Amino acid sequence: MSNRRSRQSSSALRISDDQMIDLVSQLCQLLPEIRERRRSDKVSASKVLQETCNYIRKLHREVDNLSERLSQLLDSVDEDSHEASVIRSLLM
């Protein structure tokens, strides 16, 4: 009985080829590296997923860098100032 449930739940999680194509297309629109290419250039789904991972890593690095810069800025201002309050809110 649990094997039957397992098959039912896994089939419910499967997506159609059309849905996959649509999702990959949506990712392409979000990725600067791919979005800037000519429409005639075909990009494989694996390339889109690879670029998505690279872009997410890049965004994480940017967030880390900005957080570090804000922390340094916070250290350089008066703790009770309005600027410090704004910086703390950005770090949250």
TrEMBL record:
Top-level taxon of origin: Eukaryota
One Pfam family from the record: bHLH_ILI
Protein name: Transcription factor PRE5-like
Annotated BHLH domain residues: 4-59
Gene name per UniProt: LOC108810532
Signal peptide, first to last residue: none
InterPro entries per record: bHLH_dom, HLH_DNA-bd_sf, PRE
One Gene Ontology term of the molecular function aspect: protein dimerization activity
One cellular-component annotation, GO: nucleus
Keyword field: Growth regulation, Nucleus, Transcription, Transcription regulation
UniProt subcellular location: Nucleus
Any one of the GO BP annotations: regulation of growth
